[in-house]
Amino acid sequence: AHPFGLRRAAPLLGYLPQDLVGTPVLFYLHPEDRPLMLAIHKKILQYAGQPFDHSPIRFCARNGEYVTIDTSWSSFVNPWSRKVSFIMGRHKVRTGPLNEDVFTAPKVLKSKALEVDIQELSEQIHRLLLQPVHSSGALGLCSNSASHEQFLSIASSSDSNGFPPEEAQVLRPMT
Predict the structure, then answer these.
(1) What dotted CATH number matches 9-130?
(2) What is the maximum alpha-carbon separation in the chain?
(3) DSSP E strands, 31-166
(4) Is the pTM of the predicted complex or chain greater than 0.70?
(5) Each residue of 70-103: b (16+ CB within 10 Å) or e?
(6) Which residue, 87, 97, 142, 150, has fewest beta-carbon neighbours within 10 Å?
(7) What are the residue boundaries of the structural domains of the chain, listed by start?
(8) pLDDT of residue 100
(9) What whole-number distance in Å separates Cα of residue 93 and Cα of residue 79?
(10) What's the chief localization of this chain (predicted)?
(11) Cα–Cα separations (whole angstroms), residue 119 to 57, 147, 171
(12) d(CA 157, CA 64)
């Protein structure tokens, strides 16, 4: 899945939709921030549909520089299966890259050696999302507050294989 609504990714990070399709969100995170995504998913299960804020995450722009993004998360828990059906992330850019031309090709290409840790984290997140959620009445809650701030959306799903309408900004699983 992808860390952002595909249409919003281009001006903020320099990636075109076709650049993002088929690659895990973890590939675009700063290597030190990748474990945060597992921690976020654990907290999603803990909060069982309730919205929460999390520490900033650094996303790599196409030009190789990082954009720091403040994040908040919510999820929808299926009341029958008690599993997370989808996750929504609302993000606000805290700091942009020094080189604002995010479409510039990077001077150094990303190393394929990093794919092992990305695959391991993706599998851990997937296993986590297969677990039932234990909560006290928050099942089915999905925060959807409107904002005039520019944001990016993240979504993952444990029991959906299709893309919902593009306007919903909800995308396929991160695994």
Answers:
(1) 3.30.450.20
(2) 51
(3) 52-60, 66-77, 84-95, 151-154
(4) no
(5) bbbbbbbbbeeeebbbbbbbbbebeebbeeeebe
(6) 150
(7) 9-130
(8) 85
(9) 33
(10) nucleus
(11) 19, 34, 19
(12) 28
pLDDT digits (tens, 9 = 90+) for 143-152: 444 333 333 4
As a whole number, mean pLDDT of residues 110-122 equals: 74
Least confident of 18-22, 37-41, 86-90, 106-110: 106-110
Amino acid at 161: N
> What's the pLDDT band for 97 if we cut at 50, 70, 90?
confident
Question: Coil, strand or helix: which one is 105?
Answer: coil
DSSP annotation of 25 reads G
Q: Do 56 and 142 contact (CB within 8 A), yes or no?
A: no
pLDDT score at 30: 93
**DSSP H or E run through 11:** helix 6-13
